[in-house]
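Narrative summary of target 7.
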Amino acid sequence: MQQDSDALNGLTAQDFVASVLFDPTFDEGMALVEETAHYLDGRGREEARALPRKASMLYAGESMRVTTRLMQAASWLLLQRAVRDGDMEAEQALGERYRLGSKEICLGACAESTEMLPVTLRDLLGRSDSLYRRIARLDDVLFGEGMTAAPGAREHQNRLAQAFGSD
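Modeled conformation, tokenized:
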């Protein structure tokens, strides 16, 4: 895990969207959105009707979770592509409103076993979780938690620490 973090240090959004990793990630995300929509609107709907009540309620909740994950991932990927293609300024894309959202829902674990759910939905849940977690890590490194304080902010923090006698 530390090796992965080291490999991402100093990576910018422009580096990522220009890299050989962006297009396959983008294509994977969009294909998964399409596959999930097709399933949930077709065979998934039929499978849900055949489930017992408890499993049907779980199906409803988990289908919303997979949909939320994929909407968030697709929005993030589309934004990055817009920056790459020059349809949006990179500085504009740095805003908090463009960050990957709904982490509490998307990264949360299901309170119950999903074994009673149809195999296809369980597969989509796993794949959407994997995609969302990769994008969340990129989002943190490129725009948030992975960033270090700007030199001006660091200097200000150092002066505050000196003023209040902390190391």
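Residues 26 and 77 are 6 Å apart (CA to CA).
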